[in-house]
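Predict the 3D structure for this chain.
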Amino acid sequence: MQPIRRFEGSDGFTLVEILVVVAVIGVLAAAAVPGLLRARQSGNEAAAIAAVRAITSAETAYASTCGGGGFAQSNADLAKSPPGAQPFVSPDLAVADVTAKSGYTVVVSDNAAAGNADVIAAAETCNASAAPSRTMYHVAADPVTRGQTGTRSFGSDQRGTVYFRYTAAVQNPIPATLTDYVQ
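Done. Predicted structure below.
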């Protein structure tokens, strides 16, 4: 058995030095985490705005193609294909009312405004929608967990402007007094 040999002049790190390095790394990581969370929220909000804009474009295409000038009333109706064409929304937006997309639920619904009316019956739409096409629609994108997946709620309607609110969902119908909109 050979004796253990020590290397002369070989200095290693002491336990105290290693603990100091670990502490510094911990402080740097703690300072970076809030920034990463804010970046994630910003990314989720950008995706929600894009989803609302995509729904608005899909509604315009639906109105000119299948709805006789009227709008679809659900994500599912926008996901149905007209004969020989593609659906009006992508598969992820088709189920965004049930399965969150980038931390947000995106829901297309009937606009609750008093002047909303049927344009054509559901059976007369070119994609066999479940609901009749109507003169108005409402789309809302709300964070799954406010303050974590996003801080703002977004909404739009047949006017095409994307509005937002910090404390609650964008109302249906969108009030004329709401002046916070995405540019």
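The radius of gyration is 26 Å.
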